[in-house]
Give the backbone structure.
Amino acid sequence: MDSAAIKGLWNIVLSGYPRAGKTMLATRLVNENQYFARVGVDGMRQMLFNEDYPCRDEFLVYSMIGQMRDALLKFGYSTVIDSIAPVNVTRQFLLTTNVKNVNHLLVMVNVDRQVLIKRNVEKFGNANPVLAYDKRWEEPKGGIPVFKFRSSNTEEFEAYYARLIELLESEMHPFKPEFHPALLPLEEIRKTLKNFVERHSQRTDQKKQEPRTV
């Protein structure tokens, strides 16, 4: 694919359940577009702490992701942020940058429920990741530009990938910054994210300390 066909700089945030196909989509975009770069939230946790979610310092992980995203955008690379991002506060943070003239897009990667459960059982031995994120999942709030991507099978993935590329190559599309109201100031979003992460970490620590009943 001709990278020059992509119009403008993009900050694309992928959001979806484990095994929905986010990494496959991110890898495909980077492989086929010279000026795209993937930033993985799970990879950052592993690189910094060798831990899965929730790691010892989630706010640091997201701060590093934000700094890497902004650096890539300033160097002229569109970014694809590979994340589960089940709640709107993390989506807003990942979408918001001070770099000018950037198209922002939240890509919600979804698959049929039975397919999702099957993939998780094959990978993890059970469907616990799906059930856990069911409790936390939020629908995107208004004002966030969203592209719905489905990946239940190869044919569906290819069809939606073609639609996404058509959008990225378009001169005019509804995801341009001027067509959307500005999100909250970045510093305010950072404070909201930090408070959210701290509250969630406290709840996680409390659950770990609770005595288990047999």
Notes: The domain at 3-209 is CATH 3.40.50.300 (Rossmann fold). The radius of gyration is 18 Å. The chain has a mean pLDDT of 88.
